Amino acid sequence: MGKQSEKATTSVKRLLRSMGKRITPQRMALLRIIEEQEGHLDADEIHRLAREENPRLSLSTVYRTLNLFKELGLVEELHLAEEHHHYEGVGSGEHHHLICLGCGKVIEFECSFTDELRQELAKQHDFEITRSRVDLMGYCAECRKGR
Amino acid sequence: MGKQSEKATTSVKRLLRSMGKRITPQRMALLRIIEEQEGHLDADEIHRLAREENPRLSLSTVYRTLNLFKELGLVEELHLAEEHHHYEGVGSGEHHHLICLGCGKVIEFECSFTDELRQELAKQHDFEITRSRVDLMGYCAECRKGR
DNA sequence: ATGGCTGCAAAAGTTTTGCACTTCT
DNA sequence: AGAAGTGCAAAACTTTTGCAGCCAT
């Protein structure tokens, strides 16, 4: 994992450079935070984490950087059951979510199962599909007990 | 369709009454707007439409009503590629979205194809799955041309 | 009649922007 | 050196809330 994220960082640097974007400590710090966290973070949480090592890093920079990363396809803006925007890295392959409406727990899963569907729909509507998201909502075992 | 939405309205009235909620012209107007629009509306668009017939209907009421409807399971808050919250009625069966990242166009589609997946995951994670959402993102034919 | 609902205005919260200063390249 | 990026503060937006009056029940 250490090796891998190092590699990811390197390729992001290449990507930034190739787009005429600069490599700044702020961007690298934010990238690392997003990559490290497996889960989903909102802008404020990312800001809080970033400040632990660089207290002057501003929330504006977090937003600007997230928008940049979004444009570059490095993060995906998620909107789950909760309120704010959430971001997660897209480096580690597509994965989907199982969301408990009771306690808010989010379980991630992968499935190649959607490939067939993608092809079908791409053909049917003349779409080039670049990303997919599958969210399943319901109640986990624990929350079902408490009812 | 006319008949059907009339029936829907009636059953919503029952639901409201059974929850000790009042049936007000504002609520009925908002319900109708949401049911009529096939697509997805954000609070502001709903407000604009509502004002066409009742100019005094306030945005607060729109929000309060949407939250009420959400609690009652009458609408679902969606979060697509765009910015704000979007709401759509849940009366007309589950359907999913094909979203163009270029122009924002949203095509809805239905598929029973997810059933298998639902069962698989329900078993695997001991979840009771009540709702699912599948969003596929990409570029439509037109937007692909312009690049 | 009376408690819930609404409209209005103000507050709270989130995201964006203008500008002077700093820092990558 | 020069342009892009940053921090700070203010603005723009979206959503929620307090309160006085109104209206379904």
Structural overview:
Two copies of one chain form a homodimer. By secondary structure, chain A is of the alpha+beta class. In chain A, 47% of the residues lie in helices and 21% in strands. Chain A contains six helices and five strands. In chain A, strands 4-3-5 form a three-stranded mixed beta sheet. In chain A, strand 1 and strand 2 (86-89) form a beta hairpin. In chain A, helix 3 (43-53) crosses helix 4 (59-71). The longest helix of chain A has 17 residues, at 2-18. Chain A is flat. The N and C termini of chain A lie far apart (41 Å). Chain A binds chain B through residues 78-80, 98, 100-101, 107, 109, 111, 113-114, 116-118, 121-122, 125-141, 144, and chain B through 78-80, 98, 100-101, 107, 109, 111, 113-114, 116-118, 121-122, 125-141, 144. Chain A binds a DNA duplex (25 and 25 nucleotides) through residues 20-24, 26-27, 42-44, 56-61, 63-65, 67, 83-85.
Largest sheet of chain A: 3 strands, mixed
Outline the low-pLDDT stretches of chain A: none
* Rg over CA atoms of chain A: 17 Å
CATH architecture of the largest domain in chain A: Orthogonal Bundle
* Class computed from helices, strands and strand pairing of chain A: alpha+beta
Amount of helix of chain A: 40-55%
Give the N-terminus to C-terminus distance of chain A in angstroms.
41 Å
Mean pLDDT across all amino acids of chain A: 78
Name the CATH superfamily classification of the largest domain in chain A: Winged helix-like DNA-binding domain superfamily/Winged helix DNA-binding domain
Q: Count of DSSP E strands of chain A?
A: 5
Biggest interface pair, counts: A-B, 34 and 34 residues
Number of helices of chain A: 6
C-alpha geometry of chain A: flat
CATH topology of the largest domain in chain A: Arc Repressor Mutant, subunit A
